[in-house]
Each structure stands twice: as C-alpha cells, then as structure tokens.
Write a structure and sequence with these properties.
The complex is a heterodimer.
Chain A: E1 3-6, E2 9-12, H1 16-27, E3 32-36, E4 51-52, H2 61-80, E5 91-95, H3 98-112, E6 119-122, H4 126-129, E7 139-143, E8 147-148, H5 151-162, E9 165-168, E10 172-177, E11 183-188, E12 191-194, E13 198-200, H6 206-212, E14 220-231, E15 239-242, H7 244-250, E16 257-264, E17 269-276, H8 287-300, E18 308-319, E19 326-329, E20 336-340, H9 346-362
Parallel strand pairs in A: 1-12, 2-3, 2-13, 3-9, 5-15, 13-20
Antiparallel strand pairs in A: 4-8, 5-7, 6-7, 10-11, 11-12, 14-17, 14-18, 15-16, 16-17, 19-20
Helix pairs in contact in A: 1-5, 1-9, 2-9
Chain B: E1 10-16, H1 20-31, E2 36-39, H2 69-80, E3 85-88, E4 92-98, E5 102-107, E6 115-125, E7 129-131, E8 144-146, H3 147-157, E9 165-170, H4 172-183, E10 191-193, H5 204-208, H6 211-226, E11 231-232, E12 235-242, E13 246-253, E14 266-269, E15 272-277, E16 279-281, H7 284-288, E17 293-295, E18 301-303, E19 316-318, H8 328-343, H9 349-368, E20 384-386, E21 391-392, H10 393-401, H11 408-415, H12 428-435, E22 451-452, H13 453-457
Parallel strand pairs in B: 1-2, 1-6, 2-3, 6-19, 8-15, 9-10, 9-15, 10-11
Antiparallel strand pairs in B: 4-5, 5-6, 7-16, 12-13, 13-14, 17-18, 20-21
The chains are: A alpha/beta, B alpha/beta.
Chain lengths: 390, 467
Amino acid sequence: MLKRTSYDVVVVGAGVVGAACAYYAARAGLRVAVVDRGPVAGGTTGAGEGNLLVSDKEPGPELDLALLSTTLWRELAEEFGDRVEYEPKGGLVVASAPAGLDALNGFAAKQRTVGVEAVPVAADSLRELEPHLAEGLPGGVLYPQDAQVQPALAAAHLLRASGAERYLGEAVTALRRGPDGAIRGVVTERRELAAPAVVNAAGTWGGAVAELAGVRLPVLPRRGFVLVTEPLPRLVRRKVYAADYVADVASGSADLQSSAVVEGTPAGPVLIGASRERVGFDRTLRPEVLHRLAAQAVALFPVLRTVAVQRAYRGFRPYLPDHLPAIGHDARVPGLYHACGHEGAGIGLAPATGLLIARQLAGEAVEFELAPFRPERFDGTAEGSGSGAE
Amino acid sequence: MVNSTSEQVRYDLAVIGAGPAGLAAADAAAGLGLRVALVDAGAGLGGQYYRHPAPELGAARPDKLHHGWRTFAELRERLAAAPLVDHLAGHHVWAAERGEDWILHATRGPEAADRATVTARCLLLATGAYERQLPFPGWTLPGVVTAGGAQAMLKSGLVLPGRRIVVAGSGPLLLAAASSLAAAGARIPAIVEATAYLGYARGLPVLAGNPAKLAEGAEHAARLLRHGVRLRRRSAVVEAHGTDRITGVTVARLDARWKPVPGTERRIDCDALAVGHGLVPQIDLAVELGADTVTTADGTAALRVDAQQRTSVPGLWAAGETCGVGGADLALAEGVLAAHSVAGKPAPARELTVRRRRRAFAALMAAAHAPGPDWTGWVTDDTDVCRCEEVPARAVREAVTELGAADARTVKLLTRAGMGWCQGRMCGPAVACLSGGPVGRPDSRPLSCPVPLAQLAQRDGTTELSE
C-alpha cells in the first residue's frame, strides 16, 4: 500500500513559483510538501534568464504584481545574498528611432503614475550609462527597479529555506477529492500525500494538473531561445533592450517576435534573449530565430560582433490567453489553488504570487486585487481551448 | 576531389566527419554516383584516428604510428581523384536544419564572412567520439594529458608529453597509447587499468570472430613486453602529485565496484600521466534533431540505427563511433553500408560481416570497461570536477543533498559545472555520476559548437525569412 503522509498544503511544481509558494506558506506556519516530476528548476525556471522587470509592463494588474514582487525580492536578497546572484542593476530601454522614443516616453509617463521609477535618458547620456552602446540612438528610459537573479539558484534556495518536504522525480498522477468535491490530497507515482489544499504551480503543465481536478485552465507554451556568449569582462552593465520588446510581450501574434534583451552576468557570459514563438512544444531549432537575436544584440552593442556565442538554450513559457497568470483559489474546486501561467515573467512575479497564495491558504486578508487573475475566468470562452500547438 | 565550398551545389549526400567512417562513406557514395560534400572541422582528411603530421613537419614515416595506414592512404588517394566529392575542410557545423533539403550551418573562422551553408538531400553523421575523463585529485596539473591526447601529440607533432609516462584509466586505448609512446622512446613505468580484463573471457565466441582484434591486442602486448612495461590491472591512479607539474601518482587497487582498497596505495614517480576512460560518441547534432539514442554497456549515449545505418530522423544516417564506440574497422564498414543505403543499393556482404563481428566485439569491450559505480570514492570534496568553471566536487554534492538537484542538468544550473568552454564534454560523465542521475542521457544543444556572434547575426543566403 502507498505510504500516506499529511500536510496542510501540497505544492505541485518545484520551479521558482512553486518554491515561492512553499516559502511563504511555510512562513505562515503551514506544513508544506512540494512534488515535482523532475528536479528543482527542471522546467521553465531552469531555462529562464532571471529577469525581474517592471520596465516592460504597462499599468494594470501584472504591473501591480511586479511592483509588489520588486519589494519582496529586495527582502529576499537580504536573506539569500549572493547565493541567488541578485543584482539590482536596473534596466535601460532604448529607442531605435525618434518616433519610437516618443512612444517610449509616453509609456514611461503612464508607468510613473503607478509607482514605477522611470528616468528619461537623453541621447548624449546613453553612453555614460552603457559605454559600449551603439552610437546614434535617439534616447531611452532608465528603470532602476529592474533587477536580476539566477533563476535556478533562486528556486533551489527558496525551496530549501521553506523547509518543505521535497518529493522530486515523482509525477502527480491524481488529485484526491472528498464526496463534496473538495481537495483531500495528491497521489504520486510512489505515495499519497494527504492535504486539504493543493497549489498548482506546474508552469507549462498547469493545464494538465487542473485537468486532474476536472477543471479547465488553458495554459499554452510559448517557445524562446537564449544565446550565451563566452565569458567577457563587464561590457554590459544593465539589462538593455530595444523599445519594441514591450510590444512583443503583449502581442497575440503566433509569429516569431524577438527583441533582444542584452545583459551581462556575474559569471561573465552575456545573455541575449529571448525569442517568442508559438509552436507548441516543438523543439526544432530554426536558425533564423538565432539570427534575429544576434542581429539585434549587435545593433545595440557593436562591440559584441567579435565575441563567440558559446551555447544557446531553449525553454517554453507558460501563458494564458489574456497573458495574465492564474493566481488564487479556484472557485470550482474547494481546496485547489493555482499559481501558474506567468509566461516570461515567472521569476519576477514569483514572490508576490507566493505571498498572495500563502495569505489565502492561511485565511489571512489578502489586500490585493486578485480578480484579474481568477483561474476560472476562461470558462465559457473558446479561448485557448484545443491543443497546445496553435 | 575539390577542396573548396560551392554554396550553389545541391549535394546528394553531406558527410560530416572525415575520419574512417566518413572517408569510407564518401568514397563508396562517389563510387555509386552520388555527389558528395565531405565536411570536416579539421584542415586535412583522417579525423582523430588517422591523425598525422602536417606536411611541413616533414615526417618520414607517419605510417609508423598507425594501424591501417595503408587503408587510409588508399582512401585518400581515391578521394583525391574523385570528381564527385568536395572536401569542405575547416567547417565546424553548428546546426543541421531539416527542410526540403538539409541545410548545414557552419563556421570557418572568426570573421563575419566565415559563415558557410551546405545543402544536401541526405545527411550522414560520422562525427566520431571524444575521450571520457573521470576526475581525481591532481588531474588538472600540467603534465596530465588524456590518453588520446598523448597519442594525438605523437601523431600530429611527433612530440611526447614527458619522458616517464604513466598510462592509466580503462579501455583498449591504453594499450595502444602506451605502445605508441614506448615505441617513440618514452619510459612507461606502469599501465594502470581499472578493470581485470575478465569481462572479455565471457565473450570467447565473439573474440574468436575477431582475430584481427586479438592480433592487434597481442601486437601491443608484445611490444609492451619488449619495453618491460608492467600492466597493473584492477588499479587506478587516485591522486596525481606535484605543484607546478606532475611529479608522481598514487596508484591503488580497486574492488569490483571500483572502490579504492585502503592500504594498497603505492607511489610511482613520473613526469607525465596519460589517462582516459574510453570514448563518448559525439552526437550533438543528431540529438538536437531529436534522433533516438541507446545507452551503451559502458554508460554512454549512442545513436540508434537500423540495419541500413538509418537513424530515427528521416534523411539522417550515422556510421562509426556515433553508433557506439567500436574502432576503425567497424567505422569503415558502417560508412560503406550507409553509402549504399543512401544510394538505394543493396548492402555489400563483406561489410555486413565485418559490422556483425565488430559490433559484437564493441559490446563486449564496452561491458568489460564500464566504470564501476564506486569510482567517485576517489574524488575528494575539493577536487575540481569541472575544470573550465573550477567547480569542486563539494559544490556538486551539495547541489544534490541540499538543493534538490538529481541530474547533471540541474547540477549544471546550480553550480555552473559544464557551462564553460568545453560545454561539459570533459566533466559531463563525472557530473552525471556524482548527481546520482541517469548516465548516458545526451545533452540537447541548439548550437553544437561556438559561433561568432557576427556570423549568427548575418542572414545566410539560402533561407527566406518569414516575417
């Protein structure tokens, strides 16, 4: 017979979002278990760059979440220090043409009204901030709140600090529910874990976990490639990207979109990422995707022309049709909570997600407008139904 | 044979790798009327196996260091006269793109203009293998070289890594390397082989079917005997000593699981150590294309091929070490078989026989030299496992016990082991063992070798971008 163990909550998913849920739930005094079919950071987290961005978000629910996360990441950085390679280095968004600069400044003005620090940078000051930036760019905006962590380390250390029991390399095969339909626990390949609450932090596979509870959550994959250069001296100080990136993130188009975010890392390599494609879980490399990333990086930093790209990696971002994550209790299944679908922003949004989920789990006041993230908001819509490949 | 690239040509077959498998395939394919591109990263033909001094060195007898030199010389001669074969030297292929045709993306140097593409109807992967390293304290000292590296130094530069060279590790390459080094004038105080060679006894019928292999082994053994070289079986170098350079090694007996037996340590003075634990198939391009792999008896990943050398990816063939390490004769035979399959011709009987016998021998060899599970016992906590990123074993072990890593990929993410210049080719097998995760699981690499950013940034002339 399967071994049976009891917890207050079982988190499904050992990526950064699951780890943050475990961390804040444990801090709220709950007994927590984390289950994942793979190792820690085995999915999207391990394929991410570690962007903690407010700069790319327009005023709205996601930006509110990002601003809360910015504060939480600062607190976490004090606890974890260098171990998660937290760098509050700021972001620099540059316009590539004068018309783009007007749009960027308009965007920044709106962001400032909700608490984003956004400092206009004149053309002649750009190279004081980034000495190797291309000449002739019309200007940009500096975002001091943008920061970076190493995502796998962040997930691993949050998970360890949570003290949660880890069941890694065990797929969840079923969710146990009582006669009233309420969650009673999870069944894995090796055991049964009893708990009155389950958090679905399964990222790209969030839809499959929801399905185990008989509810629909149309999480889809959006593929990305990141280029990694050879180790270099610090040529790029901040996160630097072209203004059209903002349009790409919000775009609903299935076509390839990319505007390279270029940044240095403490270990030396410069990261250039990331492309955005909707091709389901297809892993086939299209060299043209890499060409575009490389061309955009070289356009921003001509000095990179002579460096070697040492490797590239790919990942699949989990997104929902309206590009907002699902966060909070599922009104359809008592005891089921969702924390997934963060697309390319999961590392940044993880602490706020974890904190809000933990407050709900502990029955505390949430004091944050969660309505836009309601997991059941896609019921009765045709959006996102069907297969993962659009 | 033309020694240049022509980007306008649509080849019938592109062969990646100009070692035994690739040479034999290109030769056979041209003989069957196919237009062939023989693509290789090196400047000349031959690959690692037929490595030979550059002509400028004026070596009088490069054949002295080689088995089967005559086979190579004949292949080279025939290919030089073959109008259907283009030798594209110095091409490092970083991706193979599948479409109507294959498009190989290659880099030829550091400049933006050094980008090349090759278009072909069929693709044969004959990329060979690289050496497996298992770390031990002191393995990063100058004077410690790989067994194959020592042979390569000898074959291409006619230089020895030292004057008094211990040869250690496991596998038939040790005897071959020691034999070459001794013949070139080095003193070999010991060959330290981790297995007992008893594994071969279980395959007597296989051995009987491979008399050439036995003769080759006997020839090495006889030469080593003449030079008074001692073979220590069931032993390993568990530490290399020295400060600026290696001055000696500690050798210990191993139990059946390769755990060093306490009290059996013995010091041997030397000024070089050539160490290797067999070969790992070089299959990055095929893995990235999603080709099926098998795990060989010694825990490496090799491509799964059918009787016609076809991989699971349509239009992609493989031959030689990429299908499991088995030596040059096997590679030659598989190259010929692959070429016939590409041309739609029936397989020649001689090569079928060679393949059957040599594949059986390869399986026996892999099983006999598979690393024992407890070899990690000689890796102290402060031994650097990944030498590119200087990651000690302690960090790898902590990632597993403290942070929830359970495989090589996660250890890499948490420690940087395998993220440096060699991209884990050196430390990959060791990290997989230390992580307790599956061994023989291939890495997926969108780029199979480094590419200058300027070349990536440049659009190639053959693909249309869909906006």
